């Protein structure tokens, strides 16, 4: 008995001695700590969860196997050795078997069970290089998603997202944004053709709070969102706390510096003016500063009177300076943009509760003088198990933004006034190449007058076309401010092991204020405009959930309903007739009765829906969904519409045993979704007009609505395959889709004899089909080094099959002589305009007299034809490549994206050429003479072609006259939008855990980065096709005089406590 007792003690002590506390830190490929990772001993329920710093500890015995698992990452198994420190680097999950993704209505599902394509982007990838608008960081990372980014000078401008081509007559491709299950607005209040870009509202979410973004691309994935999911859904999941005692504190700081990287190539040979002859006044050479072009004399160093020599009382008055070029005047006009971001988060929890509280602050000093802004973000997430059966989740997000001096876009400034400053036209088109912009900074003269370079004459120094750019940027700068609140709470009660019920309430609210002004000293009449807009959306949802497994059969899903209410209020007021007091920017200062526009819209959608996923033996899955919406915006007899979907997936690798194939799956789905109209369009009311002698007036609408108008319909099929090889070191995801879009809401012109000019009805049939490819590989993976790459490629074609009855062409927009048109039988988005008249492919020319160089009778000019097809807007394919290399704590990532095909019209090139600013307007012809010289002196631009009778023609065109003739040929300024770009480069380092053992820190990492590192290929020099601002159609077909392209250099620091 005594021996047995001693043996028991010895065995117990031996077991105790062998078992030890294993601990370590868990990080991702970039060295960032991963909280919430499940760590447990294989074959047991014993384990732990990593904290906010990625740290874990678990008692284990040598020889036991630890399993590390986390959603979105590959599961890792490691054997415990005599080393009690096990640090782990987790790679993004490439296997489809154990990976979970967020799907419609925020439901997490095994990706292996899905019958449609979903791609997920880790939130850490969005903050690597400090994008002002985090949506831009999606560039090249998701197959089938086309991203158009703004210039960094736009200080948080709109990022446009298009998923799978064009699926509507209007071209609107705005996807639905959902944050933690809360649908949010992504509206913007921009006029990027002729106004300012105030950015899209989705960027109010703090990017440092984002855990992941899931992109639901097709109707099968988004069918549960009904009418709002037709263009796809962007699901944003924010970070949560962990249910573990203790508090984790994280700090993330980013500093970005923006420098000019891309500009048009300017000529630096000829000065400003309309003629190459220098005029004289009182024996001195004078430049023609009345002109806003650069067809003037050669810059040869002669002493001339410049614009500032005509202002009495100034230091330059009466003086001459050398006539020389300023090659970097445009580059030096832009300032160094600086963006600093600071984020701090506190997270923690207990056995039943977790929380995360964060605050973010961003400050932007814009690259455009007098521009900048501030952002403040706060977020709180709480998850708690109140009882064993009752759970509550709550999320609150608040944002406050203030910006001033947002730059103008398009050919002219806001309100179509030449006095309002748009940087692009001022610097790239209507300027003079010898200008020193630094001399314009001191814009006020001794008598209080505003000095400008573009004077009418030496004796009249008032501005001819352009005010002083610095004066306008400082005194006509707009101001905008926005408050945003996003919140939601849900309660889930487990009725039984099979059934549970969830009730939730969600709200998205914003209040936007925009002020615009024109100062008294400007050419245009003094002016003030204020716009206030509020938006509120509430959703109330009730779901009955079920989840049951019987042997090899699994069944899960839910049925429920939702009530959506939207309310938007707008109030705009603007002065009329000037201001009663100098620069009193207030509606009360209006000389005449101010213009006021006040409106309110309300809309309600009631919905019921349900989904069921049936699985058999973890290899065969059937998905079914159904939704019915009732919209208040449609007629009562047509306001109900039903959208079903069905999908089947089979994980065939479960049926075979292969050392090569790790995972194999095929999938197919069918779905219907649709769209309705804005509220009140069906009502034939009398809109309010102006006030005459105190009596209000009302007008008659010029639009009639089809009484049988109904929701549009999109019907799609999708098939795909997923193949992973060599223990998930190599993988391929291929997807084909075909979507038929019918009965779109369109507006057509009708005869005025009906009493109306427009008719709103259903029409159109657009078929979009495409192929998406996502490829991943881990070519090298050792204990200390790994190389991961992800490549995606997508090809889409959207064809207009039908428009409406006998209408075969439908105009969308017209910009500077270029028409965006839909034509039956053609790809969506045909560009039409004036182009060269040709015979057998040769341009037709004729002799004409020259108005530029007198007596140049041999001048040749091109003949043209109107309404010619000059391009197509949608690209042939898009894609991206992400490389990640990691060595111990060092990580390097290089992100590329590219586009092939599509066309755009360049106003910068068109008017920059016409005004003599660009390098293409100088050079020597085949006679060895300047192309700007007279033809009878051997000069002129070479012209080759044929005469109208087909006989060969060869000669020259006269300087500025030739340039302006070409300006009128819009087809000459259409360019291929293809590009290849190294979008991001990032080098980071994570300090080893052992280095931090005697410090209060659990994590320290830092990184340097470059964004917009290298435009490797573009078919048009000096313009970045990926930064052409989309127009109202959502398509980037018109480069309206854009700003410079910027390269951003960043430094990042992350701390964990």
Automatic annotation (TrEMBL):
Residues 1-20 form the signal peptide. GO terms for cellular component: cell outer membrane. The keyword Transport applies. It is found in: Cell outer membrane. Its main location: membrane. Residues 111-233 form the TonB-dependent receptor plug domain. Keywords: Cell outer membrane, Membrane, Signal, Transmembrane, Transmembrane beta strand, Transport. It is a multi-pass membrane protein. Pfam families: CarbopepD_reg_2, Plug. InterPro entries: Beta-barrel_TonB_sf (IPR036942), CarboxyPept-like_regulatory (IPR008969), Plug_dom (IPR012910), Plug_dom_sf (IPR037066), TonB-dep_OMP_SusC/RagA (IPR023996), TonB-dep_OMP_SusC/RagA_CS (IPR023997), TonB-dep_rcpt-like (IPR039426). The keyword Signal applies. Belongs to the TonB-dependent receptor family. This is SusC/RagA family TonB-linked outer membrane protein. It comes from Marinigracilibium pacificum.
């Amino acid at each position: 008995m005594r021996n047995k007792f001693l043996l028991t003690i010895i065995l117990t002590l031996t077991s105790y001695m062998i078992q030890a506390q294993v601990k370590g830190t868990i990080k991702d490929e970039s060295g960032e700590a991963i909280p919430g990772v499940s760590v447990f001993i294989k074959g047991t329920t014993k384990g732990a969860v990593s904290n906010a710093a990625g740290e874990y500890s678990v008692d284990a015995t040598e020889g036991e196997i630890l399993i590390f698992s986390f959603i979105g990452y590959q599961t890792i198994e490691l054997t415990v050795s005599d080393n009690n420190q096990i640090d782990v680097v987790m790679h993004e999950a490439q296997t489809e078997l154990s990976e979970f993704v967020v799907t419609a209505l925020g439901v997490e599902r095994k990706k292996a069970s899905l019958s449609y394509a979903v791609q997920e982007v880790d939130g850490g990838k969005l903050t690597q290089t400090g994008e002002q608008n985090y949506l831009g960081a999606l560039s090249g990372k998701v197959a089938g998603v086309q991203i158009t980014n703004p210039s960094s000078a736009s200080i948080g401008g709109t990022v446009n997202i298009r998923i799978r081509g064009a699926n509507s007559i209007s071209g609107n491709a705005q996807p639905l944004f959902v944050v933690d299950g809360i649908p949010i607005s992504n509206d913007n209040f921009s006029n990027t053709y002729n106004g300012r870009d105030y950015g899209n509202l989705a960027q109010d979410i703090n990017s440092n709070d984002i855990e992941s973004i899931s992109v639901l691309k097709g109707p099968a994935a988004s069918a549960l969102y009904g009418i709002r999911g037709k263009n796809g859904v962007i699901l944003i999941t924010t970070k949560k706390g962990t249910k573990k005692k203790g508090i984790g504190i994280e700090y993330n700081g980013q500093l970005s510096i923006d420098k000019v990287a891309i500009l048009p190539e300017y000529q630096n040979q000829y000065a400003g003016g309309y003629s190459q002859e220098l005029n004289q006044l009182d024996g001195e050479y004078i430049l023609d500063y009345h002109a806003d072009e650069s067809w003037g004399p050669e810059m040869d160093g002669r002493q001339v009177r410049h614009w500032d020599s005509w202002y009495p009382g100034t230091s330059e008055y009466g003086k001459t300076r050398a006539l020389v070029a300023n090659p970097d005047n445009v580059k030096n006009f832009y300032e160094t943009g600086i963006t600093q971001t600071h984020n701090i988060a506190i997270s923690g929890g207990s056995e039943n509760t977790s929380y995360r509280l964060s605050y973010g602050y961003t400050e932007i000093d814009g690259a455009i003088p007098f521009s900048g802004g501030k952002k403040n973000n706060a977020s709180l997430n709480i998850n708690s198990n109140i009882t064993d059966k009752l759970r509550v989740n709550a999320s609150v997000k608040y944002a406050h933004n203030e910006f001033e001096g947002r730059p103008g876009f398009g050919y002219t400034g806001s309100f179509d006034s030449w006095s309002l400053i748009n940087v692009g036209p001022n610097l790239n088109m209507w300027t003079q190449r010898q200008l020193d912009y630094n001399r314009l900074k001191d814009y006020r003269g001794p008598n209080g007058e505003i000095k400008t370079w573009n004077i009418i004459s030496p004796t009249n120094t008032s501005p001819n076309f352009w005010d002083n750019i610095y004066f306008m940027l400082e005194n006509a700068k707009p101001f905008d401010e926005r408050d945003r609140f996003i919140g939601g709470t849900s309660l889930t009660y487990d009725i039984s092991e099979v059934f549970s019920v969830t009730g939730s309430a969600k709200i998205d609210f914003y209040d936007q204020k925009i002020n615009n002004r024109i100062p008294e000293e400007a050419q245009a009449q003094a002016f003030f405009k204020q716009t206030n807009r509020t938006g509120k959306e509430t959703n109330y949802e009730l779901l009955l959930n079920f989840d049951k497994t019987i042997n090899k059969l699994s069944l899960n899903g839910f049925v429920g309903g939702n009530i959506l209410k939207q309310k938007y209020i707008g109030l705009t007021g603007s002065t009329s007739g000037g201001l009663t007091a100098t620069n009193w920017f207030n509606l009360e200062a209006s000389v005449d009765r101010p213009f006021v526009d006040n409106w309110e819209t309300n809309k309600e959608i009631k919905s019921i829906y349900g989904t069921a996923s049936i699985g058999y033996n973890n290899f065969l899955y059937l998905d079914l969904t159904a939704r019915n919406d009732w919209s208040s915006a449609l007629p009562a007899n047509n306001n109900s519409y039903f959208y079903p979907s069905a999908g089947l997936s089979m994980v065939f690798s479960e049926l075979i045993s292969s050392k090569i194939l790790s995972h194999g799956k095929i999938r197919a789905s069918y779905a219907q979704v649709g769209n309705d109209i804005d509220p009140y369009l069906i009502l034939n009311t009398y809109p309010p007009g102006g006030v005459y002698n105190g009596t209000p007036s009302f007008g008659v609408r010029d639009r009639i609505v089809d009484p049988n108008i109904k929701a549009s319909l999109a019907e799609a099929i999708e098939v795909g395959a997923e193949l992973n090889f060599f223990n998930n070191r190599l993988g391929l995801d291929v997807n084909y889709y075909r979507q038929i879009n019918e009965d779109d809401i369109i507006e057509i012109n009708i005869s005025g004899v009906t009493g109306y000019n427009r008719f709103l009805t259903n029409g159109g049939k657009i078929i979009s089909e495409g192929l998406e490819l996502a490829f991943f590989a881990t070519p090298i993976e050792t204990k200390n080094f790994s190389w991961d790459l992800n490549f995606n490629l997508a090809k889409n074609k959207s064809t207009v099959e039908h428009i409406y009855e006998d209408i075969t062409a439908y105009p969308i927009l017209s910009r500077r002589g270029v028409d965006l048109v839909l034509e039956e039988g053609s790809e969506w988005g045909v560009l039409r305009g004036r182009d060269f008249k040709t015979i057998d492919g040769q341009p037709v020319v004729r002799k004409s007299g020259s108005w530029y160089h007198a007596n140049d009778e041999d001048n040749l000019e091109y003949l043209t034809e109107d309404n010619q097809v000059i391009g197509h807007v949608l690209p042939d394919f898009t894609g991206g490549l992400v490389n990640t290399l990691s060595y111990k704590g060092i990580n390097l990532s290089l992100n590329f994206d590219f586009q092939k095909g599509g066309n755009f019209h360049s106003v910068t090139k068109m008017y920059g050429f016409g005004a003599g600013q660009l390098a293409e307007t100088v050079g020597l012809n085949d006679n060895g003479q300047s192309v700007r010289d007279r033809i009878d002196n051997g000069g002129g631009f070479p012209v080759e072609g044929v005469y109208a009778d087909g006989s060969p023609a060869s000669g020259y065109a006269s300087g500025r006259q030739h340039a302006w003739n070409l300006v009128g040929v819009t087809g000459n300024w259409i360019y291929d939008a293809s590009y290849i770009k190294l979008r991001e480069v990032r080098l980071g380092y994570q300090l080893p855990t052992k280095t931090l053992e005697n410090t209060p820190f659990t994590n320290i990492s830092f990184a340097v980065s470059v964004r917009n590192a290298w435009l490797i290929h573009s078919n048009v020099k000096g313009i970045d096709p990926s930064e052409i601002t989309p127009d109202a159609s959502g398509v980037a077909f018109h480069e309206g005089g854009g700003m410079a392209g910027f390269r951003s250099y960043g430094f990042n620091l992350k701390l964990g406590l």
